[in-house]
Design goal:
This protein is an alpha+beta fold and about 550 residues long. The chain contains 21 helices and 13 strands. It is globular and about 80 Å long. The termini are far apart. It comes from Anaeromyxobacter dehalogenans (strain ATCC BAA-258 / DSM 21875 / 2CP-1).
């Protein structure tokens, strides 16, 4: 116990010294940690560093010096454009995860410890020279006894203990930092650390990556242009992962001179991405050039499944609605969708949010779809949501980051390719289940989007009212002589809202059925909607007549 305390104190000194060395001494002073460094402490009264690119670069260098845990923290932050400004994300993307290799004897020991059998009984051959050596794992090429070429990812010895020790210190530092920072935004240091804790433990358990790879292998079956390496379950555990070996050229290194059709490669990359988004609901969260190989025949292979994103059907549909609303330059629907998919930290005026979105969309007025950098636009919208204190789910943030990476790859491979044109058919297929996409550029689609949004937003808004009631934030200013009738009026309003939503649903359904050629069913649905509207109007008039008219109350308005 005492030895562990000395180790933690020594590690805290290392972290504090790195912070002081790279210009973050002001934070040490605020967290009351200057004394940890003794005579090496930075002078008191240092100003806080500005959040510019040079500060971000120093922060990246500091994380790299502090080792695997901090490198992984930087990588997590680089995948979350909703947490940090874009120039910080760009800097943290430069973090190098390479580490000196571990000797093959230790690697063999780790394999045997994890799989419980001698290496000779598991593999016919194991290459002693690693293909790659990173902060958490080392990768070796091997051959199974069936003659299959595989890669074996082995967790570095004692890395878990080192990470657990660093995590405990990071949790303490996050708590201190949160206590002394006046404004931390909607993402607090302790909140970020909790997410990092979950993420790093998932990454340390290779069975999670095995499940991700298996799921993507199964959903990609039948797509001849896409290769996902197969997991060898009998040769894998929580510290060892064995997959098929795939040989190819990094997508950043392919050239036409080498016999590749760059346009077709780019189309395959886009098609794989859109199919994963709109058909599978499972997408690669870190598609940097090192994780995409190009194979003969312009096929592509995806590697490294430690970070994947999952979208539910509702999230997929919200994404499509967002894309269509952007294409229609409809800031009202964009604001509504972002407000619905996110979690507002406070009650922000939707009007201001909508106007800020209009400003962003106006930048793209007059541009053709192929001239719009869709990934940049998506990131701008997410940044705006954060500024309005709307917490965006991690899946969308990972998607925004992955989209920027994919778009950069496409622009380098074949700049003339219209990304939206290639991807639009997949979005339309998903949209077809709810709307008729044939008039996606016209008035009917805009109206349907608003009807759909109304039906989905009312329950959310009612839930917000309940949250306000529970939190004591809901206030009603009443100036009426008929307080006893408020309950009746509320009940009448609830009936009208219910009838309105039902009529809206029948209207949407009727229009979709009519568009598909089923005139009778569509007419019946629209007729039922009309009957409901008439009934609602009659009910409203009846409730009005039942109220006593007070001239004095009317004059007081």
């Amino acid at each position: 116990m005492l030895g562990r305390a000395f180790q933690d104190l020594n590690r805290l000194r290392q972290i504090s010294a790195a912070m002081a060395r790279h210009g973050f001494g002001a934070y040490l002073e605020r967290m009351r940690l200057r004394d940890v460094l003794g005579r090496d402490a930075p002078p008191p009264g240092e100003p806080l560093p500005p959040p510019d690119r040079s500060t971000a670069a120093r922060f990246r260098t500091m994380l790299g010096e502090l080792g695997p845990t901090f490198i992984k923290l930087g990588q997590l932050l680089s995948s979350r454009p909703d947490v940090l400004p874009s120039h910080w994300v760009d800097e943290l993307e430069k973090l190098q995860d390479a580490c000196p290799p571990v000797g093959v004897a230790e690697i063999r020991d780790e394999i045997e410890r994890g799989l419980g059998r001698p290496v000779e009984t598991l593999f016919a051959a194991l290459d002693p020279v690693p293909l790659a050596s990173a902060s958490i794992a080392q990768v070796h090429r091997a051959t199974t006894h069936e003659g299959v070429q595989v890669v074996v990812k082995v967790q570095r010895p004692r890395i878990r203990e080192q990470i657990e020790s660093d995590l405990a210190l990071l949790h303490d530092l996050a708590g201190l930092l949160e206590a002394v920072i006046e404004e931390t935004g909607i993402y607090t240091p302790t909140g970020v650390m909790e997410e990092f804790d979950r993420t790093i433990h998932e990454e340390l358990d290779f069975s999670n990556e095995a499940r991700n790879a298996t799921a993507m292998y199964e959903t990609s079956a039948g797509r001849e242009f896409l290769v996902i390496p197969r997991v060898h379950k009998a040769l894998s555990c929580d510290t060892v992962l064995t997959l098929d070996y795939v040989e190819g050229v990094k997508v950043s290194d392919v050239t036409a001179e080498a016999g590749f059709d760059l346009e077709q490669v780019a189309r395959n990359v886009i098609e794989a991405s859109f199919r994963q988004l709109f058909e599978d609901g499972l997408f690669h969260g870190d598609p940097h050039p090192g994780n995409i190989l190009v194979l003969p025949g312009n096929r592509i292979a995806l590697l490294d499944f430690g970070l994947v994103g999952r979208l539910s059907r509702v999230q997929q549909e919200a994404l499509v609605t967002l894309i269509v609303a952007v294409a229609l330059r409809d800031p009202e629907t964009v604001a509504r969708v972002l407000n619905r998919i996110g979690v507002p930290d406070a009650r922000a005026p939707i009007t201001e949010f909508r106007e800020d979105i209009r400003v962003i969309l106006d930048r793209y007025l007059g541009l053709r779809l192929d001239e719009i950098r869709s990934a940049t636009l998506l990131r701008d919208l997410l940044d705006l949501a954060i500024r309005h204190r709307i917490r965006i789910p991690k899946e969308y943030a990972v998607l925004a980051k992955a989209s920027v990476t994919i778009e950069g790859i496409i622009r380098r491979l074949y700049p003339k390719l219209d990304i939206l044109e290639v991807g639009l058919p997949y979005a339309k297929e998903l949209l077809l289940s709810r709307f008729n996409p044939s008039d996606a550029s016209g008035l009917v689609m805009r109206s349907l989007l608003k009807l759909q949004g109304l039906a989905e937003d009312v329950p959310t808004q009612l839930s917000q009212i309940l949250v306000d009631l529970e939190g004591g934030k809901f206030r009603v200013n009443v100036a009426s002589d008929a307080i006893d009738r408020i309950g009746g009026h509320v009940r009448a309003l609830a009936v009208l809202v219910f009838l309105g939503l039902l009529a809206a649903g029948l209207t949407v359904g009727g229009l979709v059925v009519l568009a598909s050629g089923e005139g009778l069913l569509g007419g019946l649905a629209l007729g039922a909607a009309a009957v409901l509207c008439a009934f609602a109007a009659a009910y409203h008039l009846a409730t009005l007549r039942m109220r006593k008219i007070s001239l004095r109350r009317w004059l007081k308005r």
